[in-house]
Amino acid sequence: MKIPILNISQFKESASLNDVYINSFSNHIQLNKSLINKPHSHNFYLCVLFSEGTGTHEIDFNSYDINPGKVFFLKPGQTHFWKFETSPEGYIFFHSQEFYELKFLEHKLQTFPFFYSNQNPPVLELTHAKQKELYLNFQEAYHEYQQTNLLRELKIVNAINNIYIELTRAYTVDTNLEKLNSPHYANILEKLETLINSHFYNEKLPKFYADKLHITTKHLNRVVKETIDKTTSQLISERIILEAKRLIVHSKGNLANIAYTLQFSDYAYFSKFFKSKTGMTPLDFRKKYF
What we know:
Blueprint: E1 5-6, E2 20-24, H1 25-31, H2 33-36, E3 40-42, E4 45-59, E5 62-66, E6 70-74, E7 79-95, H3 97-101, H4 113-116, E8 123-125, H5 128-146, H6 152-171, H7 177-180, H8 183-199, H9 206-212, H10 217-228, H11 232-250, H12 255-261, H13 267-278, H14 282-289
Parallel strand pairs: 1-3
Antiparallel strand pairs: 2-7, 3-7, 4-5, 4-6, 4-7, 6-8
């Protein structure tokens, strides 16, 4: 079974506007029950602010509490699933990369810290005052989305940009901004993560990625260490483990086939590798998840 990948056109309810969707969260859940009632991924960027409700939000097998004031961010390709204990409310929007970046040619989505690296948490908890402020910004974007006024698309993308700016300020309130704004290292890390996503099935050693980036393995490890306090090998292993978990949970194939798909020499080696990183065997993980 493949993880369903949802696209924006499946959610449309307002007057046609390419590559963007905005809704109140309760209405979104009600309208799209059949689309979001099981784990899925998207081909777009997503942001949601909760003003009411409790539960859990699973993102790439990490669970986060849902409560008022929480904001979640998802990038294309991430798998997620909602589970609510009390009725949720708030606002949700998502958009394609082109919708934003064609309007802001000099500014990329990856420069926002919550979209910059998979290592940065996909969640933010706002103070009560900041929640009230951001709620009004989300509300304004939603009201504009419902209208058909002149320059509607431009106003919406500007509203989303303002939301991202305010969220970035809240997200980085305790961050060393000089380190955050190191463009050279950030650029290398972004390229590394893109390369790992493309090649981790076949290439599991840091030297391959260093060669692709035209730098030494030592310098690549320095970049990764100084930006996210990990090693290149850790990043590669984490991506392999994430894919292994996705295949273990969402495919009906036997575990030996998953080891073969991930290009391990045999199941025993794959199982040993998986257990060394997660503390359990692939079979134990499948049983625990369900």
